[in-house]
Design a protein that fits this description.
alpha+beta, BirA Bifunctional Protein, domain 2, 2 domains, seven-stranded mixed β-sheet, 12 helices, binds phenylalanine
Length: 342
Amino acid sequence: MLETHIVSLDKIQSEALKAIRSAKSLKAMDEIRVKYLGKKSVVNSVMRGMKDLTPLEKPILGQRANVTKETLQKAVSEKLKELEQAEVQGKINKEGLDVTLPGLPIERGRSHPLTRIIEEVEDIFISMGFTVEDGPEIEDDFHNFEALNIPPHHPARDMHDTFYLPGERLLRTHTSPVQVRAMQRNKPPLAVISVGKVYRVDQDPTHSPMFQQVEGFMIDKKITFGNLKGALHQFITTLFGEEKEVRFRPSYFPFTEPSAEMDVKWQVSREIDGVMTEVEEWLEILGAGMIHPEVMRYGGYDPNEYTGFAFGAGIERLALLKYGLKNLRVFFENDVRFLKQF
Ligand code: PHE
């Protein structure tokens, strides 16, 4: 009796091992596992014959059945591991990466043309002994207007279409307030430039509600209009890389006296009698002048002891001229095809 059971266990075991060895898929393995190791497995059906054995024989068959179960379990789990690995390998082979293929090119970024102009402008003035200072874009009336000799109701305020903010604050309409702050912070002699964003309620092809200015000023004993002309001429020549003809026209700013605007002689193409012709024109490029005595006083300096010059230029305007462009909107649209050209 016991003998028969053991023989059939042997048979089951070798049959199962053969099936496991030749299984080709995880699904086939699942069926084998159910057949030989599941609740209703053939091994368990042999065990059910145990009830007819003697008390001495029962443990012998039990142990023998456990050996079969363990052997099969081990074989199953080894085969499963093997099949899983084969499946992963198969996937890799099918979807495979060919590491010898050339990669996708990585585009190299570059500085925005305005950033480049700003860096150039700063470098030029630093090389002339100026330092660079910053000021807030959200200003108060005092620094943006009053300390620059533009009291309330002064008609010059109309020239600055100002964005007003709650709480007596405003978006600075020019970089000139940095002059006031720098004067209050430092003692002369002083040679400072400041580049930054300014805001005006204005929008057309040559005006944007936000644009950038470079402000510069120099204060010491005996600074003259000659120093202003020399500094600006050197600035323009270095920035445009060639000797440019410049001229100063009388102008008006409340914070400078006398005031001037500087024009640069420029080659432009114009349609004349239906023909595109290269002509020379004067283009306005910046405002400047000798710092007004009242502004000196607001900054804390004695106008009888110190004099100074100041100027302010639009960064986008400088960039348009340098790169020969017409519409300043291209600087803000950030079309990479445009930006790539620089
Ligand atoms: N702040 C003036 C403007 O925005 C420019 C300027 C600066 C003029 C300094 C003279 C001196 O128009």
